[in-house]
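Data availability (excerpt). The following record was deposited with the supplementary files.
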Amino acid sequence: MAIETELKLELSADAVDTLLGSGLLGNPVSADPLTSIYFDTPDHEVWEGGYSLRIRTVGAAHVQTVKAMGPNSAIFARSEWEAAVTGDTPVIDYTTPLRAELDIEDSALIQQFSTPVERHRWNVDEDGSKIEVALDMGLIVAGDRQMQIRELELELKDGKPSALFILARKIEALVPVRFGVASKAERGYRLLGEQASVFKAEPVHLDRDLRVGASFQVIAQACFRHFRLNESILLDNANPLALHQARVALRRLRSAFSLYKQILVDAESQRLKDELKWLTGVLGAARNIDVMIARVGSGDIKGRLLEARDSAYKEVLNALYGSRAKALMLDLNEWLHCGEYLTLPETAEIRNGPVVDFAIEVLDRQRKKLKKRGKSLAEADDAHRHEARKVAKKLRYASEFLGSLFTSRQAERRYGKFIKTMEQLQDELGLLNDMATAPAVVRSLELESHSDADSLIVHGNSEKLVSAAQSSLDELMERKRFWRG
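Predicted structure:
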């Protein structure tokens, strides 16, 4: 088994032409057609088991590769098993996890999709490290469906991971790039099924043997992947669901920064958190209008809202295509894998400590904060209830990030009940917040004097809703903590 350390960058057609004509990477060592055929059982047991299986053909050579995939596979480094084979027939033995873990036989496998591409390859020396650069241009073909590929892979062969980002910055200075978070295999499986218009957060799986610093990297990568999947949809189509989930992904990532603040004490951590807050705010302005549009029927005020929405979405796209957001994505990924926070001596004890102990401490602390903030909601003002809502959301995210560490049947039962009560509490606090903030949003859109402005305001029995939220919060505090036996 080998560990593959790479960056995947997505390019436009114009960017490919510019890069090839620039000479930045030197002369390619090869430019060959290659075709990869992906195999699985009819029920996709390989993919559902967290792996992909392909046979790649280059000239007369056939190479079989099994890669660890799934929602918890790393963007930056992942396990793979590679072997030469004869022809396009998979060989499943105990040198890969497919036989040992999934009990899959060769005879059960059928072709699922293929990726015929033209691959240009360079060997680049960067900062004393050796990097293989591969540019793939072609298609993913699944039955009568197909998808274009234009991606650049930077794979570290020897040296320091930071060299990948040095080279990536040189490329980004020449042509626009975006981080790829979906493998060819994942995109191929998507072509086989119904096309997604939005991606919700995937479960985070943490190994109990992880150290605290490594667990933060897994969580942050999951949040970044959640954002990028929805950003890709948003850049192609002004989709309110994708915008909402992209914003949720950024809020989850900001919460992760806060939950791990004990090890994130370097200046870059705070700067990145501030930049994430800026981008979340840009998406939030458009999201506020989407929510109001859902409240009204037809008529002049809806037309005014649609105009405001178009303007807000232009601001979103300007931000996402702008240099500030692009720099944020590159800076965030470089810092996540190579940042100073990974080596600071003053945080070493916590950073290198066991993740389970850290998780228990974090969950206890967040629960205590919510208990304190949630006292006497009926007597609190809107600002205080909003703070309680934010603390509740942070506890929810912490539970989702860290819940996989607690795997007993008892813990899983408690987790399900805990999350269900949290969802109810968040819905109630969220509605209270909408009632409190809607007038300010209406004023910001200069619609307060409109004859139908009242239709944009959230109406309801606030006393009854506060009482329901208090009951849910009290019920949550009475529930047994899934992270304690």
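Summary of structural features: The mean pLDDT is 92.
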